[in-house]
Design goal:
Helices cover about 45% and strands about 15% of the residues. Residues about 1-15 have low confidence and may be disordered. The protein is globular. It has a single domain, classed as Rossmann fold (3-Layer(aba) Sandwich), CATH 3.40.50.1820. By secondary structure, it is of the alpha/beta class. The protein has 13 helices and eight strands. The longest helix is centred in the middle third of the chain and has 19 residues, at about 155-175. It has helices at about 10-15, 60-65, 95-110, 120-130, 155-175, 175-180, 180-185, 190-200, 205-215, 215-225, 250-265, 280-285, 285-295; strands spanning about 20-25, 30-35, 45-50, 75, 115-120, 135-140, 235-240, 270-275. It starts with 9 loop residues before the first helix and ends with a helix.
């Protein structure tokens, strides 16, 4: 993979919470926009790379990066079609998303890396880690989508998600989606919050979300057919403990059971709860994610 590093300079690090800008090129020629925040002091054993859920750009992880400021270099990025990364034409399958993450890791260097994935980002980091487990120091799955959660395959559940997607797309088109998420963006550092308000609730972002949502069921089936093999890579699963609007209690219970199963299948697995957060754990309780990452950093 050709190295294609770009940065705005040291003054950008001081100016932006999430660090210095870079751009990585994928194997098919697309560009991924990322930011890297260097630890104080430098020299951590591993670099932490974050993967967001459906439609979640790099900005969503800003509070977790701040929590880890003294512990490790952290990298956040925008998947194609989100934030400042151009959209590609290929279908947004789980395999493609994981391949893009792998290309980013190739660009960043030999590792080791700790990968953290929230929601749909959980399957993405599992597949990417299984492709090259030797460079992965650990995986943290944050209230992740999981194929062991049977209700996720229910046609009625998928229909509700498609209806919510259509509503979100309409709100984005009329400029009302961003204000609905104002409590979330206001909780972020000001610069990251501004970025998310500008980039995270646009019709373009919702088109990308819709394309990813359409591939979720096939992606989950692919995980059942070809389970990612992580070997000795330690896996920590963080489950949300508080009620999440739109998530039925039955689904919540099934997802928690799937999380417990995912942790138990790892030789060094760990299952913990974010006691003060619903599904949006990176904003609702960033400290617990940072604490679990520190365990893996040693």
């Amino acid at each position: 993979m050709r190295q294609d590093r770009t940065a705005t300079g040291a003054e950008h690090t001081a100016r932006h919470t999430q660090g210095v800008v870079g751009r990585a090129r994928t194997r098919d020629g697309r560009t991924l926009y990322y930011q890297r925040r260097t630890a104080r002091p430098p020299g951590a054993a591993a670099t932490v790379v974050f993967e967001g859920g459906l439609a979640a750009s790099r900005s969503y992880w800003a509070l977790v990066q701040e929590e880890l400021a003294d512990d490790a270099d952290t990298v956040v990025y925008d998947r194609s079609g989100l934030g400042r990364s151009p959209r590609g034409r290929a279908p947004r399958t789980l395999e493609r998303l994981a391949r893009d993450l792998g290309d980013l890791l190739d660009h960043l260097g030999p590792g080791p890396f700790v990968l953290a994935g929230h929601s749909w980002g959980g399957p993405v980091v599992r597949v990417a880690a299984a492709a090259a487990p030797g460079r992965i120091a650990g995986v943290v799955l944050v209230d992740a989508t999981d194929e062991a959660c049977e209700p996720l395959f229910d046609p009625a559940s998928r229909a509700l998600e498609r209806a919510a997607q259509r509503k979100s797309a309409e709100l984005a088109r009329t400029g009302q989606l961003g204000p609905a998420f104002r409590p979330l963006t206001d909780a972020l550092p000001p610069d990251a919050g501004t970025d998310m308000r500008r980039e995270g609730f646009t019709p373009r972002a919702m088109r990308t979300r819709g394309a990813e949502l359409a591939a979720v069921t096939d992606g989950l089936r692919s995980l059942l057919e070809r389970p990612p093999q992580l070997g000795d890579v330690p896996v920590t699963v963080v489950s949300a403990a508080l009620e999440t609007p739109g998530m039925a209690p039955e689904l919540r219970a099934a997802l928690d059971a799937a999380h417990a199963h995912r942790a138990a299948e790892s030789r060094r697995g760990r299952h913990v709860y974010a006691l003060r957060s619903g599904h949006m754990v990176p904003v609702g309780e960033p400290r617990i994610i940072a604490e679990e990452i520190r365990r893996l950093l040693g």
